[in-house]
Amino acid sequence: MTNTALLERRNRLFGKGSTLFYEQPIQLVRGEGVFIYDESGRRYVDLFNNVPCVGHCHPHFVKTVSSQLRTLNVHSRYLHQSILDYADRLISTHHDSIESVIFSCTGTEANEIALQMARLATGGRGIICTDATYHGNSAEVSKLTGAKSNQGDVRSIRFPETYRTDAEDPLNDHLKELQLVIESFREDGTPFAGMLVCPILANEGLPNIPKGYMAEAAKIVHQAGGVFMADEVQAGLCRTGMWWGYQMMGVVPDIVTMGKPLGGGIPLAATAASTEITETFRRHTRYFNTCASSPVQAAAGNAVLDIIEKDNLQENVTTIGHFLHERFLQIQQKHKTIGDVRGHGLFRGLEFVTDLKSKTPDKQAAVRVVNALKERGFLTGNAGAYDNVLKVRPPLVFSKNDAEEFLDALEQTLEDLDA
Amino acid sequence: MTNTALLERRNRLFGKGSTLFYEQPIQLVRGEGVFIYDESGRRYVDLFNNVPCVGHCHPHFVKTVSSQLRTLNVHSRYLHQSILDYADRLISTHHDSIESVIFSCTGTEANEIALQMARLATGGRGIICTDATYHGNSAEVSKLTGAKSNQGDVRSIRFPETYRTDAEDPLNDHLKELQLVIESFREDGTPFAGMLVCPILANEGLPNIPKGYMAEAAKIVHQAGGVFMADEVQAGLCRTGMWWGYQMMGVVPDIVTMGKPLGGGIPLAATAASTEITETFRRHTRYFNTCASSPVQAAAGNAVLDIIEKDNLQENVTTIGHFLHERFLQIQQKHKTIGDVRGHGLFRGLEFVTDLKSKTPDKQAAVRVVNALKERGFLTGNAGAYDNVLKVRPPLVFSKNDAEEFLDALEQTLEDLDA
User: Rounded to whole angstroms, how far apart are CA atoms A299 and A72?
Assistant: First the structure.
């Protein structure tokens, strides 16, 4: 079916306004490793998707999940062993204080649980997030998108960063703001519950965060009686080269939420915390999720961990991530549209600006690059607080050859656009 | 691993208090058709689970989903055909006024979307539900569990039924209550948005609903400017012998939510409505669900529909459901603990009471029956507003032989307990 016909059907069946990537959307029919193919057989290199983190249609993943589908798939009001094996294994990748886990299906659901846990553990209501974040689409979690700094149960702080700040001491500038918002809760009698943040500020555009910020923020949150929550839906599962983004940022959260890559394409999300926090949640709720904690979720989750371990993907992320970063820095020297180069592991951002001095965000430049790269066969996206950051986030199996192929295309794209 | 060891691990990993069925929980290792097997190889007949609606591990389902896992699994910001084929097919089972659909992963997510749609379509806030319902576990949707009749944005009415009512005219008695709650919204300036209800009142215990209630309720809701929403997570997909519970109840909803059986074990849920309602939702939100509208969800959904159609499961549900009902009525004659026998298709309830006159709910009797049936190798559950209803909800492939085997076991169980 042609793209035009699919678009017409899509508008009719999903309603006009459902989001699509690229000025000319692409139709996908097959995936393999870092490659995806359209209906004409054209190959694209995937530098965007973190759900198929071990590569598209990895044979071990397909085999493990298919085998479980053939054997058993039930909910968790019966005992079955595999989900407990997976829970044990997932928890073992975390800090010792993370002792237990509640599975769900999406990042939104994981963050719903985290907010309920925080409120039950502290008796508070007030939640702090950053001002350019996204943690999910439910009524409660979406309050964190576009939250105000001074009203409601959910309040925002400017996201901490070093690129655009005027402050002499960005660390203390941002920490002070956190304290002020905590104070604002106190002033109008809203008991404080905690802070939920992506440790690497993925949606904010992967800014360089003042060194030590997350640990200091957690300390301030604790002193105010709150819990510190890390949303690892994008940052986690070796994406940065560490198992979890909070490890990269040197902070230990009280509650961690995980999603997207966890199930490698089978909906699987998780909220992990200390035994005390989890059992408080259990005592006050009868939380049950029919589609979660299933043997098929366990198979998917275990297969992803198998591949990460067996193929040394953590090491690959660090090596290739470092290689990309060095080359991005070289490319930046040649193009004064690139204001900043940053990120971690295989999650990198190039920030486009109209000029290096004003640092005015240039969303259109990022959009042009994304669309031009797509025409060359490379799938990236634009993101960040100003939508002006080229988001480079290939599967964890991305090789040096893949990286070189992409870097060549990026250089040519930038040269064409400069011309 | 022994059940004791699994229980210990589960308490440690999931936190004490996560729910399990049966006084002595069972460990499951394999499923096939209507049967599930424990670690010792013991066979159980599944009369409870509606997610594997086409039977556990149906070969066509396993093959179709496995094949898609091997081919492609991406999100819906790219074009791919299969999810549109599935959307078309799903919508074609609905009333003509249901024209478009938004996919998600769980019933909770589907109901989150429905509530947002209702509020955006009407500009209202006030939602009406019944007083013994459950529509999901998010902060917003769980407001419908235990909602009060006279305060807040979500208000409840007594669920309509004919067994325990004292009213001379139960239909008008219940409709009047609905009007009063709508009036209560008007009185304190909460604009009304709509009513969300399971058309067969599954969680309420499948009561006989005064004839015509749902259609009259929808009319009243419309007159007050609200939308009528049917939660088909339990009632839908041929469970009653009709495609959707609302068809069985003779009402046309404005918004329909679907979940559990839709994906046959792959998390898949949907919210369907008119083009107008869906496009209003699209205009006001940027709803996107990474794990939803995927080719694997499409494969799972299509495989379930294939099997329902090819194996004439709709007819099977009606035939076997009728057979069960007739035999339940005969069994009721012999046991004065069974106050009421009801339900639709392959979703049946036997209500246990201490005596037929007072109709005092006897939860303990239902719990005893459920546990005794489990010991005999038949998996059922207890449910309803008073937890005193034996819930009989086998996969749609349940045969007459299966039914006879179960009925024998039920009769023996009831005789033993009467003795």
Answer: 11
CB B193 within 8 A of CB B242: no
Contacts of B187 (CB under 8 A, 6+ apart): none
pLDDT at B150 over 90: no
Q: How many residues belong to chain A?
A: 419
State whether residue B400 sits within 8 Å of chain A by CB: no
Q: How far apart are CA B398 and CA B381, in angstroms?
A: 17
A299 close to B (CB below 8 A): no
Bridge pairing between strands B154-157 and B192-197: unpaired
Compare CB distances from A49 to B74, B115, B279 and report the shortest one's residue. B74
> At B265, is the secondary structure helix, strand, or coil?
coil
pLDDT in tens, B3-46: 999 999 999 999 998 889 999 999 999 999 999 999 999 999 99
**CB of A23 closer than 8 Å to CB of A371:** yes
Q: What is the edge-to-edge ordering of all strands in the sheet holding B347-352?
A: B338-344, B347-352, B389-392, B381-383
- Which of these, A231, A285, A286, lies nearest to A262 by C-alpha position? A231
Is residue A17 within 8 Å of B76, Cβ to Cβ? Answer: no
SS3 assignment, position A56: strand
Is there a shared CATH topology between the A3-54+312-418 domain and the A60-310 domain? no
Q: B235-250 b/e with 16+ CB inside 10 Å = b?
A: bbbbbbbbbbbbbbbe
The answer to whether A406 and A378 have CB atoms below 8 angstroms apart is yes
Q: What CATH number is given for A3-54+312-418 in this structure?
A: 3.90.1150.10
What pairs with residue B300 in β-bridges? none
Closest of A408, A348, A336 to residue A378, by C-alpha = A408
Angle at A111 between CA A105 and CA A117, to 5 degrees: 115
Single out the residue of B374, B409, B376, B379 nearest to residue B392, CA to CA. B379
Quote the radius of gyration of chain A (alpha carbons, Å).
21
Query: Looking at domain B60-310, which of 3.40.50.2020, 1.10.1760.20, 3.20.20.70, 3.40.640.10 is its CATH number?
Result: 3.40.640.10
Per this entry, what is the length of chain B? 419
Chain A: nearest CA to B357, how far in angstroms?
33
Phi, psi of B100 (to 5 degrees): -150, 165
Question: What pLDDT sits at residue A83?
Answer: 97
* Type and span of the H or E element at B129: strand B126-130
**CB-CB neighbours of B366 under 10 Å:** 27
- Cβ of A84 under 8 Å from any chain B Cβ? yes
For chain A positions 25-64, those within 8 Å of chain B (CB to CB) are 25-31, 36, 49, 51-52, 56-57, 61-62
Look at residues A261, A300, A298, A206 and name the one whose alpha carbon lies nearest to residue A396.
Answer: A261
Contact at 8 Å (CB) between A299 and A131? Answer: no
Is the pTM here over 0.90, yes or no?
A: yes
Residue B15 amino acid letter: G
Give the separation between CA B269 and CA B228, rounded to whole angstroms.
19
Q: Where are the domains of chain B?
A: 60-310
Closest residue of chain A to B74, computed from CA coordinates: A265
The predicted pLDDT at position B256 comes to: 98
B257 shares contact with chain A (CB less than 8 Å): no
Report which residue type is found at B202: A
Confidence of residue A348 (pLDDT cuts 50, 70, 90): very high
